[in-house]
Design a protein that fits this description.
heterodimer; A: alpha+beta; 3 helices; globular; B: Rieske Iron-sulfur Protein; Naphthalene 1,2-dioxygenase Alpha Subunit, Chain A, domain 1; eight-stranded antiparallel sheet; four-stranded antiparallel sheet; 15 helices; 20 strands; 29% helix; 3-phenylpropionate/cinnamic acid dioxygenase subunit beta (chain A); dioxygenase (chain A); EC 1.14.12.19 (chain A)
């Protein structure tokens, strides 16, 4: 018996062309070079996101990325699903992510001007080999701390992520990200941030 | 609520005491006098398409199981066990023939009828002790649906839903009846914002004036075909019955050309022509107005827009339905659904969904900036300064109450209600007048529901 239900791109109308590579075998040893590489990649990305350096972030994303954060719903144990059908908070391709980034770079994206103070606390990283030499599956937990202004308290977003990293030339790019947010009702005013 | 008569009188002349957007006493009055009476949206029938499907939704602090029973009938049942008051359903959605209370094991069919009461004979002495026959989870005092939209009212004497909606039903069809099959409603995204619930409802009802400023950024990044957000003032606002909304003025053309302009494929246009009345078609084809945002009193809003969803010149329309669920004077839970015609082609549904996600909802690029403003407004409305500040909500009226622009004639606007071109706060005032009408009335008197006592009246 498990309460864990994996997120699948195939469940999204916009995820039909997403990469389908899956983890194979147990997680890699923590001194495995592939794990060290993947862990470092996630830490570097967390700094990029905390700095809201979104041009640099877009450069980390593969052209065919599926960036997917379904809505979590409370269902009885054994129901067989815990995400809303055909709806999500994020269900993005490179174009829609690039528009979101472009908007932050106008002088009129009020929601992040003044910017939030954000920190992605990253933990529980484990890496899996796949059937592809150039692809790794990496799982992680992320706790986003977000503080805006000086009146309201901060907000938190807790999530698990399952990523597909792909070697492209000399660099590793994010080809798929599934975000399992841990609340059914978000307690942050909007998702003008990325996880 | 302090100074209630003054507050309501000021609201009625369009002068808004700023504290109404963050005042615990005002919120209590809204709870007792408004949400205890008004029809409130809870779910769409397409969210519970099959026998046994249910969703759990709230009206203020009241939890309801909205279910489809074995006969296909829809119910809204107060989610409280008749024994000790435990929540009988703790999931948000699912499919069940019965609900069993985890506390003592009482169980209910999905139409609310009690079916299991452990040790009824031994513990209660059977029917002579606890009259089980005919007992059911307490139904919402009033329940009705229109175009699949399910509403409840806490008032058993609520007027019929269609009477309540009035002429706004004409406009509701644009969003929820584009073909004989109606719509499917997906979601909701749910999130909490530290903003008063009225602000969103007012904004969607009629605030075309904020678009060029608040939403400059989405125009700058090329999400819209129209180069300037100032286009907004060429549209009109309308108020009809218990709702009102905003429109965009479309470029010259006939009905087909104008529907194509916002991205509808021909097969959907053909179905709209078969579905809508001549007047509904004339608003678009003859008069050149396309519906955009709207609100139904008190807290249901709708939006229709047509952004680009890829790096091309094509635009795609989307529809969203949202509820501003009040949590407290300074907090609102937003429930935002994506709405699409059931008969739309799959490719259209897919791209319309993408258009929705990019623009509205928890991550939407329009909504992000709206919420930032509304949170900020709510913060500043909390203090004593705001208590003594009457904001001017009279846009569109001279000081002697003469309107700045005359209403459109039936020859200029085929829809019911009162429509005016350009910026104005007519609709926000109409919404707040409804609000004042409710706050002025005493709470509805409802006889208590008595559990398990045959033929007994409540003591008073």
């Amino acid at each position: 018996m498990t309460a864990y239900l994996p997120i699948r791109s195939a469940d999204s109308p916009l995820g039909q062309d997403a990469a389908t590579t899956e983890a194979v075998g147990p997680s890699l040893a923590f001194d495995d070079a592939r794990h060290l590489l993947a862990h470092r990649w996630l830490v570097e990305e967390a700094y990029v996101l905390d700095h809201q350096d979104y041009d640099a972030w877009l450069d980390l994303l593969a052209e065919d990325i599926h960036y997917y954060m379904p809505i979590r719903v409370t269902t009885a144990l054994g129901t067989g699903y815990d995400t809303a059908k055909r709806m999500a908070h994020f269900d993005e391709d490179k174009y829609s992510l690039s528009r979101r980034v472009a908007r932050f770079q106008t002088e009129h994206a009020w929601t992040e001007d003044p910017p939030s103070r954000i920190r992605h606390h990253l933990s529980n990283v484990r890496t899996f080999a796949t059937d592809e030499d150039d692809e790794l599956v990496v799982e992680s937990a992320v706790l986003l701390f977000r503080s805006r202004g000086d009146v309201r308290g901060p907000s938190l977003v807790s999530a698990g992520r399952t990523d597909l990293l792909r070697r492209t030339g000399d660099s590793w790019l994010l080809a798929r990200r599934h975000i399992a947010v841990d609340e059914s009702v978000l307690r942050t005013q909007n998702l003008a941030i990325f996880l | 609520m302090r100074d209630a008569a003054d507050v309501l009188a000021n609201v009625r002349r369009g002068m808004l005491p700023a504290h109404i957007y963050n005042d615990a006493e005002v919120f209590e009055a809204e709870k007792e006098r408004l949400f205890s009476r008004s029809w409130t949206f809870v779910a769409h029938e397409s969210e519970i398409p099959h026998v046994g499907d249910y969703v759990v939704r709230r009206v203020m602090d009241n939890s309801f199981i909205v279910s489809r029973d074995q006969a296909g009938e829809i119910h809204a049942m107060f989610n409280m066990c008749l024994h000790r008051g435990m929540q009988v359903c703790r999931a948000e959605q699912g499919n069940a023939s019965h609900f069993r209370c985890p506390y003592h094991g009482w169980s209910y069919r999905n139409d609310g009828r009690i079916v299991g009461l452990p040790f009824h004979q031994e513990a209660y002495g059977g029917e002579a002790g606890f009259a089980r026959k005919g007992q059911r989870l307490v139904p919402a005092p009033s329940l009705a649906s229109h175009n699949g939209l399910i509403f409840v009212s806490m008032d058993p004497d609520a007027p019929p839903l269609l009477e309540f909606l009035g002429d706004f039903a004409f406009y509701l069809d644009y969003y929820t009846k584009q073909s004989p099959s109606g719509v499917e409603v997906l979601g909701p995204q749910r999130w909490r914002v530290h903003a008063n619930w009225k602000i969103g409802a007012e904004n969607f009802a009629g605030d075309m004036y904020h678009t060029p400023q608040t939403h400059t950024s989405v125009v700058e990044i090329g999400l819209f075909r129209e180069p300037k957000a100032e286009k907004r003032k060429d549209g009109c606002t309308y108020w009809a019955g218990r709702g009102g909304g905003t429109t965009y003025k479309l470029p010259p053309g006939d009905l087909d050309e104008r529907l194509r302009y916002v991205g509808y494929p021909d097969e959907m246009i053909e179905r709209m022509k078969g579905q809508w009345s001549q007047e509904q078609l004339d608003v678009i084809g003859r008069d050149g107005f396309m519906i955009s945002a709207a609100s139904v009193f008190p807290n249901l809003s709708l939006v229709h827009n047509w952004p680009k969803v890829a790096d091309t010149d094509e635009v795609l329309p989307f529809i969203s339905l949202r509820q501003w669920q009040p949590i407290s004077a300074d907090e609102t839970e937003v429930l935002s659904w994506f709405v699409v015609d059931k008969e739309a082609p799959e490719e259209f549904k897919k791209l319309s969904y993408k258009a929705y996600l990019m623009c509205f909802g928890s991550s939407g690029m329009f909504e992000q900036d709206d919420v930032e403003n509304w949170v900020s407004l709510t913060n500043t409305a909390a203090g004593t300064m705001a208590r003594n500040l009457l904001l001017n909500g009279r846009m569109g009226l001279l000081q002697d109450d003469t309107p700045v622009v005359e209403p459109l004639t039936p020859e200029q606007f085929a829809g019911p209600g009162v429509a005016r071109v350009g910026y104005g706060e007519y609709n926000q005032r109409a919404l707040l007048n409804e609000w004042a009408d409710h706050l002025e009335q005493d709470p509805p008197k409802t006889a208590p529901t008595v559990v398990g006592m045959s033929g007994a009246e409540a003591c008073s």
